Amino acid sequence: MLDTDSLEEYILSHSDPEPPWLRDLYRKAHIRLVHPRMLSGHLQGRFLKMLTQMIRPQNVLEIGTYTGYSALCIAEGLTGISFVYTIEKDDEMEDFIREAFAASPYDGRICLYIGDAAKIVPAFAKDFFGMVFIDADKREYWEHYELILPKVLPGGYILVDNTLWSGKVLEKTPNNDWQTKGILEFNEKLAADDRVEKVILPIRDGLTLIRKKDRRWKQTDS
């Protein structure tokens, strides 16, 4: 039987280490927060940084800041005059987030919004973001996706976290499990959406990588 803990340890030991400000943030989250496992963590954080470097977006939107860990990883991968705009609904997290940003070298690259994404996102211009990371209330995934898609540049990318949801996507869903139902709804609707290309990556709890098709160039839609 595969020892998944040992495999994860092997993967992390052969990947780039966390920067010190992220290690400190990880420790503080486990001391001060009720659900610390919700933060992105070492492996996904290094992936987010490298993917950002590959995409080279000018503007990035994040829905669901939580501790600020993922926003910091994305900011680490930015080049030039580029910014992360991150939205957190829980106003009780604001002090923790701002403390984490201030302790890093990337505070100046991150714009934090506290409030409802449904009220904040419409203020951004069409085709403003080259990359979006969604990691918020699973019940609202599809609504968030439809909200941000017009704001994404043609050929831009959307990342959606937790799309395998600890394997619950393969199990019978209890009637009152609205989070799992939200994930299932999102996955099914996205699979049928011909406006984008998509692939689910089995990283951590499932990470869906989505590319908005560029209708200006037919050859990119194949």
Task: Just give the CATH class.
Answer: Alpha Beta
Largest sheet: 7 strands, mixed
Q: Could you name the CATH topology?
A: Rossmann fold
The global form is: globular
Percent of residues in helical segments?
25-40%
Based on helices, strands and strand pairing, what is the structural class? Answer: alpha/beta
> Spans of 5+ residues with little confidence (pLDDT < 50)?
none
What is the averaged pLDDT score?
93
What is the alpha-carbon Rg in Å? Answer: 17 Å
Question: Would you report the number of β strands?
Answer: 7
- CATH architecture heading: 3-Layer(aba) Sandwich
Quaternary organisation of the protein chains: single chain
| Biggest sheet: strand arrangement | 3-2-1-4-5-7-6
Fourth-level CATH superfamily: Vaccinia Virus protein VP39
First-last Cα distance:
40 Å
Question: Helix segment count?
Answer: 8
- Percent range for β-strand residues: 15-25%
Summarize the helix and strand pattern as letters. HHHEHEHEHEHEHEE
Task: Domain count, please report it.
Answer: 1
What are the key terms here?
222 residues, Rossmann fold, 7 strands, globular
Describe it:
With 222 residues, the protein is of the alpha/beta class. It has one domain: Rossmann fold (3-Layer(aba) Sandwich), CATH 3.40.50. The protein is 37% helix and 20% strand. The protein has eight helices and seven strands. It has helices spanning 4-13, 20-32, 41-55, 69-77, 94-102, 117-120, 141-148, 178-191; strands at 59-63, 83-88, 110-114, 129-134, 152-161, 196-201, 207-212. It has a seven-stranded mixed beta sheet with strand order 3-2-1-4-5-7-6, with helices on both faces. The longest helix is centred in the first third of the chain and has 15 residues, at 41-55.
